[in-house]
Design goal:
Number of strands: 0
Order of helices and strands: HHH
Number of helices: 3
Shape: elongated
Helix content: over 70%
Distance between the termini: 55 Å
Structural class: mainly alpha
Radius of gyration: 17 Å
Largest sheet: none
Strand content: under 5%
Length: 83
């Protein structure tokens, strides 16, 4: 167990950030999964900017790697074009 005041604060911060990161990660995965299940091209085209923005936000905050965001955006765009 931590003995210093700063170490105790660090433990509290880490817990808060871990929970927040888990929430955003799960939200992102659900959004991508729901997007992949779309079959209507018009609806997919309308939602593509939203999912792209979400992925960019996750990458800019450091919750996912920027290359992962780019790869996901590329795959989702290919999927929309194939519909």
């Amino acid at each position: 167990m931590a003995n210093h005041k700063s170490a105790l604060k660090r433990i509290r911060q880490n817990k808060t950030r871990r929970l927040r990161n888990r929430y955003y990660g799960k939200t992102m995965r659900n959004a991508v999964r729901n997007f992949r299940n779309l079959t209507d091209k018009a609806e997919a085209m309308a939602k593509l900017p939203e999912i792209t923005s979400l992925l960019d936000r996750m990458a800019s905050k450091g919750r996912i790697h920027k290359n992962k965001a780019a790869n996901l955006k590329s795959k989702l765009t290919k999927q929309v074009n194939a519909l």
